Amino acid sequence: MSRILPSDDATNPLLRTARVGPVAAADETCNVPTGAHSNGHVEASLVKWNEPRINTWRVLATFFSFIIVGANDGTYGALVHYLGEYYSIDYAILSLVFLSPCIGYTVAALGNSWLHAHFGQRGVALLGSGCHLLAYVSSALHPPYPVLVLIFVLAGLGNGLLDAAWNVWIGGMADSSRLMGFLHGFYGLGAALAPLTATSLISRHGQPWYRYYYFMAAGAFLELLALTATFWSARGSVGNTLDHAPEHGDGDGEGIRHRQRRGGVRDSALIQSVRNPATWIICLFIFIYSGVEIAVAGWIFEFLVDQRGTSSLQAGVVNFLYWAGLTLGRVILGFLTNYLRAEKSTVMGYLLACVACHSVFSLVHGSFAVSVTTVTLLGFFLGPLFPESVIALVHLLPKELHIAGIGIAVTLGSAGGCVFPFIIGALANVAGIGVLPLVIFVMLVSCSFLWFLSAVVLKRRY
User: Fold this and answer.
1) Residue 287 reports pLDDT greater than 80
2) What is the dihedral of CA 197, 198, 201, 204, to 10 degrees?
3) Is the pTM of this model over 0.85?
């Protein structure tokens, strides 16, 4: 789901507290200034993508890894129709496909810090890509459906580990905005190619759905090789260097007392961010937005085939163009929003465009051209909403609450991307898949209202 950090200016407070040492190179740390230093001093202290040379290969490996991460997310919507036919299950049971990866993401969120501290990025790279490989090989064996659901939990665990690790690493680098754009561009590439490849393989070449996972397993194997080779020297001891160094004193006792005070500040910041109403306005927006993004990707194929009689190949093309539109929108409209410097009104315009595109799609039934155009444009205008909402959250919260508040927002975003597709599946089981347009419309209108409400709160700060 979306996973783009705010602009450089907005994230300076985050960069001052970032632990960038673990990813510079083996046995190499990088101290980030925290006082009243200039942006230039902060930038000079950040890890660079091409220094040392190993970082160039690491960045390329993370880009390839994000193709697999994106392909994993883009696969569910493309295969859900074929899974329903193969296992002869209803929509409610079928929607577990969307809910199960959320469990893996949750486990990843709970264990990420511990894994980094003890095994470094080498451990994350091995475990994350290993989960991918094991999940895809197991899926290719077309196990019973309950087992397949558990396998998707494993795939979600791999995605959660790698998603967080590479976002944090790239986001803590010098020139992070451009690098993050490339990183998420490769995510979008994977998410766009997955449904096109799957539907072409199944519809045009007559292969069973599980043969698609042969390709995913091959990609995961290459991912495992690339990440292992490039991050092998990124050990846990390096990742924990800054945490174990004595601070504000030469003695161990003074360093321990400082770390205890720092831990108390983090806990206090988390509590304050939860109590801040502004946090929940944007977090609720992100929760619903992520639900829209994944629900459309997950159920549009099934809706077009079952409700409108579209061929499987055409529905796969629509799914591909939706992801392609979302990726292009995130890049193009992101630059446009930054250029116009009128975030509140510009994002509201994107939301209204989403409502308009979806309304046309819902009301015009007989034209495939209209369907493919409106769904593509819907993805295009949805694209920049997640990063802009994170930037809005940064402006809403005091600097000391940025990390805790954004952590809550990203967690809720992942939850929304799992919960809403599951709810739609449960509703479709009762009323048919025709409920999809109405549910998406209500969610888009809710997002528009929440953005308007956040604009009122932001009036004096944004």
Assistant:
1) yes
2) -90
3) no
